Backbone:
């Protein structure tokens, strides 16, 4: 969605994952804060982008 990014502040604690990336939307930069929970073959993510006032939730699934 945002192109290539470098993961910052990546953490894994049991089934919880979190990291931050810098995104650029319409020429403006902001941080996207990802928090996810591993559940079997998927991770349920909540992504907050404070500078844009947005929160997005989605599920990443393992492809075999």
Residues:
């Amino acid at each position: 969605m945002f192109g290539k990014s470098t993961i910052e502040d990546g953490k894994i604690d049991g089934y919880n994952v979190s990291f931050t990336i810098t995104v650029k939307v319409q020429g403006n930069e902001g941080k996207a804060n990802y928090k996810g929970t591993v559940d079997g073959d998927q991770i349920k993510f909540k992504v907050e982008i404070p500078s844009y006032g947005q929160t997005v939730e989605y599920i990443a699934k393992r492809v075999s």
The chain has a mean pLDDT of 90. Residues 8-50 form one domain. The CA atoms of residues 3 and 31 lie 14 Å apart.
